[in-house]
What we know:
By secondary structure, chain A is an alpha+beta fold.
Amino acid sequence: MLKRTPLYDTHVAAGARMVDFGGWEMPVNYGSQIEEHHAVRRDAGMFDVSHMCPVDVNGADAKRFLRYLVANNVDKLTVAGKALYTTMLNEAGGCVDDLIIYFFADDRYRIVVNAGTAEKDLEWIEAARAARGFHPTITPRRDLAMIAVQGPNARAKFWQVQPQTRAATEPLGAFFAADLGALFVARTGYTGEDGFEVMVPAGQAPVLWRSLAAAGVAPCGLGARDTLRLEAGMNLYGQDMDESVSPLESGLGWTVDLSGEREFIGRAALERAKAAGNLRKLVGLRLIDKGVLRAHQTVETSRGPGEITSGTFSPTLQASIALARVPGAVAFGETLKVDLRGRAAQVQVVKYPFVRQGKALV
Amino acid sequence: MNVPAELKYTASHEWVRKEADGAVTIGITDFAQEALGDVVFVELPEVGRKVAAEEACAVVESVKAASDIYAPVAGVVTATNDALKDAPEGINADAYAAWMFRIKPDDAGALDALLTAEAYKQNVAAQK
């Protein structure tokens, strides 16, 4: 039995095409996925992301516990409301999940984990807590729904329907959140556009969704979410990284803090991998020939094969783009070949993000 | 679901129309375009290619996935709709106007084995 979010009936009533995503019955599109994509790049769109799981981590040793649990360092969080993107690793340095940590005080954090991994994550977090005798309270917040409102006009349209939040949320910088009691508003997202991710009590989610739609915010499905995040060069857990691969080989070295002596799960394995060298890396690909790059296609290089981890058609660039894990010596600007359903197609190695705030970067 | 009564169909979601000159015209059904989502790329067979029945001879790529298109009957490809190369979204706009290729069948009677509109509808309903 697939799980449903508090907005399930709203999606079905709007004619959404529903699919299984990580055990959740979610809208993949409401009509044209490409139109939904453009709505976010050019105006404002919204996504039901209630399948993701907020988890409150509170208590006197919450900070010490998170320092041990994740690869990025929560010591960087000193201003209330600031968010941090990080991976959570296993002892082998593979990614158990990627998550965002919102900081409110040294004894009060909220983390948000992926939908398909939430149960595994909660078990992992509890095991890590118990193993070292930490005592924070760990509370999954399935009572909350989450709506991502994204696009150049997203904030203005959100304030139109929630004017009372404006004073507290207008000063928020990128990657900051405000806890307003009933509403939790974060200036974060997964599209490469400005906007908010809003947590709201589950029962209030349909009314908020419908009022945003009435204000001209386009309902968007997971299809557009995927093309937007790929254009923005953001990793998708389970596709661009998983338990078998380290953040150092997933374009996420910048989220790993190896400074100082802080002990965290997976650190020893990452340091061994770094010392051993010869790490693969994640690069962007742009298809020169016609067609569409897809996950798991093989990339030929003179230094050994690579593999596409995510591939799609970019509606903004009107060309196919991909993320691929390739040997570390591959350089930007090189032309490589990809096996496109039996045909050798030419791709150029490019830096990502491909698109940010409506502008093509490659 | 739009399934014109005058066309024939395959279980793999191609529609087939018999032309006056004995050739057959092939495209994908409205159900197929809806399932695929926005079409962004179409690969068509070479004119003159000999194809076997149920041989993959074209590709429709949407934002979501690549999908092979099969020859409904054995024969020779006599024409392709090259307008789709520049405007593949035509398949989403009107799947029955956006034909993909034509085949001159080896056996004119082969068409009789294809699905009627009614049988195709039942086929789709059974898949849901």
